[in-house]
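Blinded run. Sample ID left blank on purpose so nobody reads anything into the name before looking at the predicted structure. Input follows.
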Amino acid sequence: MVEAETADLDEGSPAHAAWRLLHDHPGIGWVTAGKLLARKRPRLLPVYDQVVRCVLGRPKSFWLDLHGVLRADNQAVHRELTNLRQTADLPSTISALRVCDVVLWMHHRADHQQRSCTLT
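Blinded prediction complete.
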């Protein structure tokens, strides 16, 4: 994602069109559509599910907002995610976006579990 252009992630992009096609299919909700695309393109598309939404809220465009954060300050957050991956001794096949997903999940569990935040 950090190397992608804004046009690769905005509303008119092929990624957004694929998400829309999946989401509009009967029985596939927004979470499943997003997770299928994140699985297919783990370096381009992040997971955005109920847990991530609980932690980060509902930005107008999660993909574009995260893209901006990963590229800001000479890619400081992306470098930190890569460093976390190395510290955890994970292979480079695990994308920085998947590391981000795990960090958000772990943060959610620590900060929100006592508030009975629903995970569904």
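Unblinding after everyone has recorded impressions. The chain has a mean pLDDT of 90.
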